[in-house]
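User: Could you check the structure of this?
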Amino acid sequence: MKYKYQLIVLGSDVIVKQEILNQIVLELENLNLPKEFVKVIPASSVDTDYEGNQPAFGLYFGDVNGDFKDLEITEKLLKDGTMILPIFFNGFKSDIPSVLSNQNAIQYHSNEINRITNIVLEAFELLRSTRKVFISYKRAESSSVAIQLYEALEGNNFDVFLDTHSIQKGEPFQDELWHRMTDCDVIVLLNTPEFLESHWCKEEFAEASAKQIGIVQLIWPNHQIIDIDKSSYISYPIQLKENDFINGIIDSSGCFTKSVLDQVVVEVESVRARNLAARQDNLITEFRNIAEKNNRKVTVQPEKILTEDLANGEHIIYIPTIGIPQSTSCQSAEIKKELMGYDEVSIRLIYDDLRIRDKWLKHLEWLNDNFKKDIKTLKKQDFESWLQKA
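Assistant: Sure, the predicted structure tokens are below.
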């Protein structure tokens, strides 16, 4: 297989380096991508193996003793425009060389491995760069915990939807809520004793099922898990105990201990990639089934995109897009177009339009009519009519 994504490993030869590389391989397997999809290039092989015309991302492992390695190669890659993530252990200034002083860094902890892995996948456009979480809860039972989770997740670089904090004045409340749920990666569901007795909570749960959005389910003490059909979507339950709440207070004024908050953040990070992959696979399967029914031959590529070669010599790339297509989706499409080696090709960003607000759908249609002719969006409800065309 031709290598397409280059992961360049720089800096100190620390033990955690292999742990992170192993996790990247595991996540590629979870995404149903071959491990050969990413070519790991050590600093010693950059001169012979690095190709400047293919996507690249670097990890620089710092040194607690200030013994900085691979500085010349690091400077060269930065001049080439390669993104490099510095990873430090004690302090950024002491562990990382000055050449990387302007780069956003991350401090290594064992619970940050998933985060580092996802940064690599985002850099290679294998995960979308937005990190959206939706908190589903019943205000009368868990409002304090919901706010606490909102702040903890926001503090860990997630874009969090909480109904009391995230809907602007004058917006149609329920339409905006469904719209934001459609565009999220993970739902954190606070499964309190009377959660399903609320009409709107029950609706949110049903909506998650319809959209096949992954759920991190936090189950209150002495309460049962909500039965979820795991064939529909991914669910990760966490059974809580009274000592998971500060002073054992589990009513609407109660709050989680720090250890529980940390556990939820790690679990959300872990679920995110798996759920995005599952939703992407479902979109691909549905599109391909409709294509076959209409005698259109589309091919699923290892990159999890679909290609179609028309009889007139034209080529089409179909890129499954989770949530609402954005300008970054078009940038990703341009990269995939180059990787496929096509000169003349049209691109369709295929997406599920269920519960996306009308104003956004109209905006996407306007973009289709007024902007780049070779990149357009194609919503799920139009798959049939599009694929029926000769």
